Automatic annotation (TrEMBL):
Organism of derivation: Aliikangiella coralliicola
LysM domain segment(s): 102-149
SMART domains the record matches: LysM
Gene3D superfamilies per UniProt: LysM domain (3.10.350.10)
Protein name: LysM peptidoglycan-binding domain-containing protein
Length: 354
């Protein structure tokens, strides 16, 4: 067994350890949490910004700038401070990404913050409105004052314009479905359509034109269609619309000249058939790639050459020249036509000398 004095020593040591731990627990407190410090700092920053906004409402820009500077030193990414700084240093066009503005007449009870909230979606944008309209003291805004407001995608006026434009596009679709082609095209030139809907307008306009072309079967109907579209094109609202009209007129005129040429050729009216084919080729230089056109042109040249030779032998030199001229318009490299035309012209010149 252990001596009594050793047991007493061990008991004493254990007692001292227990007492020391109790004293340590009573004499110390937990260190503050980092999160508590951060929250306090953010609260202070927000109070600083609130004071800056109050100063800006009174037009005291210099003092407000100093407060904003202090916030950004400690928190360079503070969103409200950055927004205020942007509005104080950048132009309105870059902030709202728009050049468009609208006028607004201040009513009794209006504040610049309320106007900014309604038109721009955030009351803090009163700063931009004050700068844009050279308002030194926003808190003294007077009823009857006319101010400019940037027009953004979320502005009430833009939302109304989009609804109106969408309704007008639907109206054009109705004209197309009802086969009211000329009325639809005239309306396409005059109805209100926003820029963002221009491509949709052009798509609907092309569908109306295509429907008009399919509905115009006879040559007389197609001639009338081309004339009508040409007249409508003159009142089109923009370059893209005019270009679309002109492409349509160009294509339909080419087809009309070709069909005319084919009918005249079948009727053995070779001179007029050649004239129509020349006009078609003037609109489309690659038209000869079509097999039917190539064959018709070859036959026409042969027929015109036969007529020219007959006229030449009968001393109808001017008529012979007109045929060879047409051949050269159809086929500028035709050596036979060049040769006979030159010979005929020399003979005609000699006869004119007498």
């Amino acid at each position: 067994m252990s001596p009594i004095w050793l047991r007493l020593l061990i008991i004493s040591l254990l007692a001292n350890i227990i007492i020391g731990c109790q004293m340590l627990d009573k004499g110390t407190t937990a260190p503050p949490k980092i999160d508590d410090l951060s929250l306090k700092a953010i609260a202070n920053q927000n109070q600083q910004i609130s004071r800056a906004i109050v100063l800006l409402e009174k037009g005291e820009i210099t003092e407000a700038n100093q407060l904003i500077d202090e916030v950004l030193i400690f928190n360079p990414k503070h969103p409200t401070a950055l927004s205020v700084r942007e509005q104080l240093t950048q132009n309105v066009e870059s902030i709202f990404n728009t050049q468009r503005k609208t006028n607004y007449t201040v009513k009794s009870g209006d504040t610049l913050g309320e106007i900014a909230e309604k038109w721009l979606g955030n009351s803090l944008f009163f700063i931009s409105l004050a700068r844009l309209n050279n308002i030194d003291n926003p808190s003294l805004l007077q009823p009857g004052t006319v101010i400019q407001i940037p027009v953004t995608e979320t502005s009430e006026i833009v939302v109304k314009e989009k609804r109106r434009s969408t309704a007008n596009l639907r109206l054009l679709e109705e004209y197309r479905s009802k086969r009211s082609f000329t009325k639809g095209l005239r309306k396409a030139n005059t109805l209100f359509i926003i820029d963002q809907h221009l491509e949709q307008l052009l798509q609907i306009q092309q569908l109306i034109l295509d429907g008009y072309a399919k509905a115009s079967i006879s040559i007389s109907e197609r001639e009338k269609m081309i004339s009508t579209v040409n007249e409508i094109a003159k009142s089109s609202r923009n370059e893209k619309q005019r270009a679309q009209y002109q492409r349509f007129i160009h294509a339909q005129s080419r087809l009309l000249f070709l069909d005319d040429a084919t009918l005249l050729f079948d009727e053995k009216n070779y001179l007029q058939a050649a004239d129509k084919l020349v006009k078609a080729k003037q609109l489309d230089k690659d038209i000869n790639r079509q097999t039917s056109v190539f064959r018709m042109e070859k036959l026409l040249i042969n027929k015109l050459h036969e007529q020219a030779v007959v006229f030449y032998r009968n001393h109808s030199l001017k008529k012979a020249l007109s045929r060879w001229d047409l051949i050269l318009q159809l086929q500028p490299a035709n050596e036979l036509a060049k040769k006979y035309r030159q010979r005929t012209q020399k003979l005609l010149n000699k006869l004119n000398q007498y």
